Amino acid sequence: MIFSRIITVFCLLFFFVTIIYPQQKTDLYPVTEPDIYPSLMWAAVQLIPSPEWVTSTDGLKFGIRWQVTPLLYSFGINKKLSPWRYLIAEPFVRQSGSIELFFSPEYLNIKDKFKDMWLFRGGARVYIPLWQRGEYMSASLSASYYNFNGINGISYEGGIYLFAGILGFQTTYSPSFTNSEWIFTIRLRYF
């Protein structure tokens, strides 16, 4: 008798959670595509660099890094939304699980002349949500190809991101970047 009541309560609860509740939730919150576009304010925020430190034979040297994401595919957002983003990727779209192509110019204070201090990097990065679908914490792995004054090579990178990806800590390893194999970056990113 008690067993049949438990089964009945369980079936009613299952019916409510799987059929009635999701329909109510969907009706209250319709899914819409984001209405964001590049603007002057967005461009100004993109000019804020992220600080980084480069290992060298003289110790740590200071540098700064920017990043442009021309293409991103997100696999962690609502399936009713387009997973593709161009130039602008909302923090949740990126941190909830995505793959991006990126271009990253960097200023490294390891040469004597200003024109010789620029490193250009292009690559692919995957983001993996770790906590609260990536809003609280996520991680990334990437591989990139760089050019520094005619010296080319491959880099590998790992990162941890907090606060929907606004604050991140990245470590980049470039085996062929002689005497400066490691770069540590505090990444500041807004969109």
Which features would summarize this protein structure in a list?
alpha+beta, Porin, 20% helix, 191 residues, 3 helices
Molecular structure report:
The structure is a single chain. By secondary structure, the protein is α+β, with helices and mostly antiparallel strands. It folds into 2 domains: 1-30; 40-188, Porin, CATH 2.40.160. The protein is 20% helix and 45% strand. It contains 3 helices and 10 strands, in the order H-H-E-E-E-E-H-E-E-E-E-E-E. It has helices at 2-28, 40-46, 91-95, and strands at residues 50-56, 59-65, 68-74, 84-85, 98-108, 118-131, 137-148, 151-162, 167-173, 182-188. Strands 1-2-5-6-7-8-9-10 form an 8-stranded antiparallel barrel. The mean pLDDT is 85.
Q: Can you name the CATH architecture of the largest domain?
A: Beta Barrel
The outline comes out as elongated
Helix content: 10-25%
CATH class of the largest domain: Mainly Beta
- Strand order of the main beta sheet, please? 1-2-5-6-7-8-9-10
Helical segment tally? Answer: 3
Topology as a string of helices (H) and strands (E): HHEEEEHEEEEEE
User: What is the CA-based Rg, rounded?
Assistant: 22 Å
Q: What is the total number of structural domains?
A: 2
Query: Distance between termini?
Result: 58 Å
Number of strands: 10
Q: What is the name of the CATH topology of the largest domain?
A: Porin
Q: Which stretches are poorly predicted, pLDDT < 50 over at least 5 residues?
A: none
Oligomer kind: single chain
User: How much of the sequence is in beta strands?
Assistant: over 45%
Largest sheet: 8 strands, antiparallel, barrel
